[in-house]
Amino acid sequence: MPTLYFSLSNPESKATVENIIREFQISLEAKCIGLEIAEVFSQSYIRRNISLCDALIIIISRTEFSTRNLTLPIDESVLSERIRFEIISAINLDLLIIPILLDDAVLSQRENLQGAIKHLCNCTSYTLRSAFIQEDIQAVLESIEEELNFKKEVEEKLSLSAEESFQRLAGYDAKPDKPRSLESSNSFELRRVVEAESIFLKKARAVGDKNAEKNALSALAMAYSRLGQTLKAIDFFLQELDIAKEVGDCEEQCNLLANLGDAFAISGNFHQAQKYFEEQMTLAQAKGFVTLVGSSYNGLGFTYVKQSNIEKAIECYLKALASYRQQKNHDKELELLVGIGLNYQKLKLWEQATEYFTQALAIAKYVENRKEETHILIDLAENYQHLGNTEHIKPLLKQAEEILNVRNATWAPPLIKRLITLKESLTPK
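RESULT FIELD:
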């Protein structure tokens, strides 16, 4: 469940923002933190709450940012400083920053903006109309969910291999009650990891212990990843990669190449990410690391999606699918089948999308993933609607409805909404 920080700068937009937050809570199962308007803002409050979040979402109405200057509806110095501090705090934590423009709002294109505001203007923004929030917001939610899921997946992957470093830190501090992994850590604990592992790194290099040096570099890279300092993490991953190459540890090289691909993807450098995933794939294939072949194609597929090369992305995802099927990894198989279907939808190739959704439905039932099963049933129904095969829609909706009727899950409301829309489309006018 993502945690989102909402910045509301115009009190007149409060009712609209509350509707937006409600949609995020329902559709993304998100925990939302909002900052009310105040004459004085608290840096400690902002810093503490943003550190708990996955993204900063700034709601901008048309009166707040003009193309000439920052004309704001309340005290300009207070408001602009607060927004600036929120953005800087989010940048330091490597959070997604998402401007949502209400009605006719536009972001300034001037070059002489403050650094933080300039960064905001360079972020991908989304436009919503107050009168049509529910209709407009679905595409926004899907895009944000994709970004959040990818980032979460990468962070989890990076954190899993860092448990050893926490155990070492506990020994170093003689405090056995430390968390067992970086996943549950806060920024203070992570900075203590950095301090301790920096000492380990110096000691390892002083005595020429390559294995200890590699472990310290790994821990530092993971800690900086969790702190959101991606460039520092990349630097330590590269140093660790040099050692892995020096000692001839090919499997470790593959894992590090994947970490670098993920890190560059998070930073938005998809060209570099692609380079490292390709290098991982080449090495994994040469050494027969079947598991890593699948992950490299999966990573490559994502980079192609982000570069809007959907055909190439599908090609990579199909190769990843073959690899995971060979491993009998049903969860990854399901994930890829759905992803391939969704990408065929982007190309409006409804028959191909239907083929892969049908395969995904069988796997979802096999692993008893009712949430994914319901999603796929509705995806299939929407596909058949595009194909004009209305006779297939009702049975699919009936199955989906049966699942939803016995589940009171937080993920159910947006699916119910889609189901109702489809049922209404079948009703004769």
